[in-house]
Write a sequence for this structure.
């Protein structure tokens, strides 16, 4: 069934279809430049037991490079996975200060965040380098969590589509099937201002629509799209209740085992339902 949809992000009018589909949610914590080895070990001591029944979702924590090994050791025998916050686009060579995908994979990591807005803002990452790093992560056997998100609420749809076009579109079908996308509106990261569930859902719909245009209906149905931006225990459940939101990328609230444990467990409750998936149709009309 097709119907008109007026996006709460204020930019787009799209048609969408509905289908029922099951995607395993991913709840990922991004610790940024926080915690030393002792803090990492003590986090997992509490966190492990708090989430040992969260079977309906994948749980991933991304500490700093220095603490990946401690995290891998602390999560052995659990369902918690460990990811890096970045990687180099090259596998090895004269790249001082860089860490490659194969090095990260060899430690036992499963994921790598790529193109986080803080990397784009402070370290000059571009859509082009995001694409290269995404491919490098896939080649190394890691799941890239590819971040996209507008800086300003105004023209959000246009900014998102541009990032998709330059950072994701050039992937092959096989590569696209290996990625997770994170929608992170920059204005919501670390600000305490979360996108409303409706606004986030509209952006996810738009991204999924673009995925359908570029990679086909099945690929769009299968790709997991996470929301990130000031997620806390008190808003996680309503965000995860949106059919197109397949998980969360959590910064500040992932540093505390109790608060991140609550987010994981709330999301697990939501995940136990079969999600009714919507995807945006190809035609996207700017509203002026
Ligand atoms: C992030 O770092 O990706 C993030 C969403 O941070 P926060 O949850 O603190 O806004």
């Amino acid at each position: 069934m097709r119907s008109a949809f007026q996006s709460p992000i204020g930019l787009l009018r799209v048609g969408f279809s509905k289908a029922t589909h099951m995607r395993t949610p991913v709840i990922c914590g991004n610790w940024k430049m926080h915690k030393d080895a002792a803090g990492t070990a003590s986090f997992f001591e509490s966190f492990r037991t708090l989430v040992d029944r969260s079977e309906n979702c994948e749980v991933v924590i991304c500490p700093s490079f220095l603490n990946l090994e401690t995290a891998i050791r602390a999560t052995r025998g659990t369902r918690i996975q460990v990811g890096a916050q970045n990687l180099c686009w090259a596998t090895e060579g004269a790249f001082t200060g860089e860490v490659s995908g194969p090095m990260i994979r060899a430690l036992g990591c499963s994921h790598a965040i790529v193109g986080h807005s803080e990397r784009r803002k402070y370290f000059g990452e571009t859509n082009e380098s995001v694409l290269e790093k995404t491919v490098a992560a896939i080649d190394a056997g890691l799941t890239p969590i590819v971040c996209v998100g507008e800086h300003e609420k105004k023209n959000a749809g246009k900014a998102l589509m541009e990032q998709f076009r330059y950072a994701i579109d050039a992937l092959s079908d096989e590569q696209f099937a290996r990625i997770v996308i994170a929608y992170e509106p920059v204005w919501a990261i670390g600000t305490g201002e979360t996108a409303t569930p409706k606004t986030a859902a509209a952006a996810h719909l738009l991204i999924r629509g673009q995925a359908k245009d570029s990679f086909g209906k099945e690929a769009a149905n299968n790709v997991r799209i996470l929301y990130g931006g000031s997620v806390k225990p008190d808003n996680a459940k309503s965000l995860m209740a949106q059919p197109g939101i397949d998980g969360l990328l959590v910064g500040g609230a992932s540093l505390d085992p109790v608060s991140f444990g609550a987010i994981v467990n709330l999301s697990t409750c939501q995940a136990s339902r079969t999600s009714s998936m919507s995807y945006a149709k190809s035609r996207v009309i700017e509203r002026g």
Remarks:
- The two ends are 27 Å apart (CA to CA).
- The mean pLDDT is 88.
